[in-house]
Amino acid sequence: MLHIGNYSFKSRLLLGTGKYEDGQTQQEAVLASRTNVLTFALSRIDLNNIGPDPIEHLSREKFTLLPNTAGAKTADEAVRLARLARSSGICDMIKVEVIGDPPTLLPNPVETLKATEILLNEGFTVLPYLSDDPMLAKEAEALGAHAIMPGASPIGSGLGIVNPYNLHLIIEQSKVPVIVDAGIGAPHDACEAMQYGADGILLNSAVAKATDPIKMANAMRLAILAGREGYEAGRIPKSNVATASSPQENWANS
Amino acid sequence: MNIIINQKNHNLPDSVSSIQELRRHFNLLNTNVMIEHNGVALTADQQSHIQLESGDKIEIVRFVGGG
Known about the structure:
The structure holds two protein chains of two kinds.
Chain A: E1 2-4, E2 7-9, E3 13-16, H1 23-33, E4 37-44, E5 64-67, H2 75-87, E6 93-96, E7 99-101, E8 106-107, H3 109-121, E9 125-130, H4 134-143, E10 149-150, H5 164-173, E11 179-181, H6 187-196, E12 200-203, H7 205-208, H8 213-233
Parallel strand pairs in A: 3-4, 3-12, 4-5, 6-9, 9-10, 11-12
Antiparallel strand pairs in A: 1-2, 7-8
Chain B: E1 2-5, E2 8-11, H1 19-25, E3 34-37, E4 40-42, H2 44-47, E5 57-65
Parallel strand pairs in B: 1-5
Antiparallel strand pairs in B: 1-2, 3-4, 3-5
């Protein structure tokens, strides 16, 4: 079970809902992933073209919504979006996302922490999206963040874990759940993060933009299960010398 | 009455004097939307109490796909 604040989830995969080719594929991928948490963004409604409600057919018993503050460039904007999301009455969890740098979409750490603090004071369950910086993670945890969400690599890049050392440090030091968010490209990336001891994975593009999103959703589910089992099983230490697995008797002619 | 909705000016009939009527006017009663009135996000309960005044700033947002 993954525990975040007062929430408990069976699945350790949190799935994004952007970038799918069509609604049917998305729905089937969501089911194949067996996720319990779906992320959403907020967007101004087009009053001339209201269209279908994207969450109308979503089972609220089966899925918890994790809105994000995408689009915010400052703490104030993130707080506004979070308050709007909560006013829906659907969920009080929020992924704080304050993008500071357009080409890399890396988060602005100062504004992210500011928004995190304000939203924690207002009783939100706060999951800040951060760079993979152990000191930042420490600061967010000290503020009371309910989970730490370090990026493996830039959003949508699919580069996987670019700094395993930092990610290890964050996982080892954190007492709140660490959810690796952004940059996961292939199932082995998700598996690797889980093997390190991450508590969960949040991904979107890796499934939505895969050639077969439904199959990839299942692959990610299995990879996360495997990584978690591996972590709990305890891997062998790495060694620079070989240790034989078979008897090393001497068969040379005497 | 002149109301700014999602950063655009809208000249609304005088009958649209509350948030609830605003939702009805734009055919938004049966879809999940979240509304901010002059910078304050409104719960469903608050929406039924707020009266509109000329010059009010409204943001109407909804959940969309995102990661």
